[in-house]
Design brief:
The protein has 316 residues and is an alpha/beta fold. The protein has a domain of 213 residues: Rossmann fold, CATH 3.40.50. It is built from 13 helices and 9 strands. The strands form 3 sheets. The protein has a 5-stranded parallel sheet with strand order 2-5-8-1-9. Helix 11 crosses helix 12.
């Protein structure tokens, strides 16, 4: 399937140019990780949520903060601990004596980009409160439903090695994350540039927004309109079918997982400057979208299994 290259619709050309500038700005902070940054951006454009699974000190917080700054998003970071309560995250009604009534005080979840640091250290009850808000994009408290800001993007982190006193996310909750990625160690050139260069925090402070909220919402909507041919849809289904019966897995990719592949593929095609999805787009995002839904270990060890699945399924 060799579709001709077409630029995306002219009406969002300026927003796409600004999006490219945002990617460049983030890559200037997080050196040597352009593909990872692109995947994180695709996750946001596809209206998903991101699980960053990596060792401490790899740049997870830097990535989240840089995305918020360059996209002009409000940003909160919450350190998840075993004594963090759901109300600490979502907010609670507090009685105001002067007013003679309870007044709701929103918690840190009421932001456009939330960094949920070490999510696996929180109790299952607090994890569920976050994951429900991620799914519904609203918070229910004291009989009232309060919408979360738009866009609403959660980046959750966890350390795949130190599992002492943690509550690992069950498979059904992992499925709430559109993508799971790992930053990994930088290459030699990038690490030397970091050692020689300016403190990343100083660079973050100088970052200016390249996009506004309206432009980002426009891009998210435009991504849904990226064309996917019948042949491309059949390819996605063939990948899902192979995970169910041909890959020797305990369980395969669900229909919701296949839809996640399509949404992420459309966002990736947009970042590539096309108005249609190619099989290569699906292959590019397959490991980060599919592997955590198949129970294949942490993000650092799933690449080989993903490559085997992609190799086994013929291209359309």
């Amino acid at each position: 399937m060799n579709a001709p290259h077409h630029p995306i619709d002219q009406t969002i050309h300026n927003d796409r140019t600004a999006l490219d500038a945002a990617l460049a700005a983030v890559n200037n902070v997080l050196l040597g990780k352009s593909n990872t940054v692109k995947q994180a951006m695709a996750c946001l454009i596809a209206r998903g949520h991101l699980l960053l699974e990596d060792l401490p000190g790899m740049g997870k917080t830097v990535l989240a903060h840089a995305l918020a700054k360059t996209l002009g998003l409000s940003f909160n970071r919450v350190q998840f601990t075993n004594d963090l309560l759901p109300g600490d995250l979502t907010g609670a009604a507090i009685f105001i004596k002067e007013q003679g009534q309870f007044v709701f005080h929103p918690g840190p979840i009421f932001t456009q980009l939330l960094l949920a640091d070490e999510i696996n250290r929180a109790s299952p009850k607090t994890q569920s409160a976050l994951l429900e808000a991620m799914e519904e994009r609203q918070v229910s408290s004291d009989g009232a439903t309060r919408p979360l800001p738009a866009p609403f993007f959660v980046i959750a982190t966890q350390n795949p090695v130190d599992q002492l006193s943690t509550n690992p996310l069950p498979e059904a909750q992992l499925d709430r994350f559109l993508m799971r990625i790992s930053l990994g160690y930088p290459d030699a050139a990038a690490e030397l540039a970091v050692l020689r260069g300016e403190d990343r925090r100083n660079i973050l402070e100088r970052l200016a927004p390249s996009l506004d909220t309206a432009s980002l919402l426009t891009l998210q909507q435009a991504a849904r309109d990226i064309h996917a041919s019948d042949a491309l849809l059949a390819y996605i289904r063939a990948l899902a079918e192979h995970t169910r019966h041909g890959a020797g897995l305990v369980y395969g990719l669900s229909p919701r997982g296949a839809l996640a592949l399509l949404a992420a593929g459309r966002a990736w095609a947009m970042l590539e400057g096309r108005d249609h999805v190619l099989p290569g787009d699906i292959q590019s995002i397959f490991p980060s979208v599919a592997m955590h839904r198949l129970g294949l270990g942490d993000a650092r060890h799933a690449e080989a299994a993903a490559a085997q699945i992609i190799e086994a399924v013929p291209l359309p």
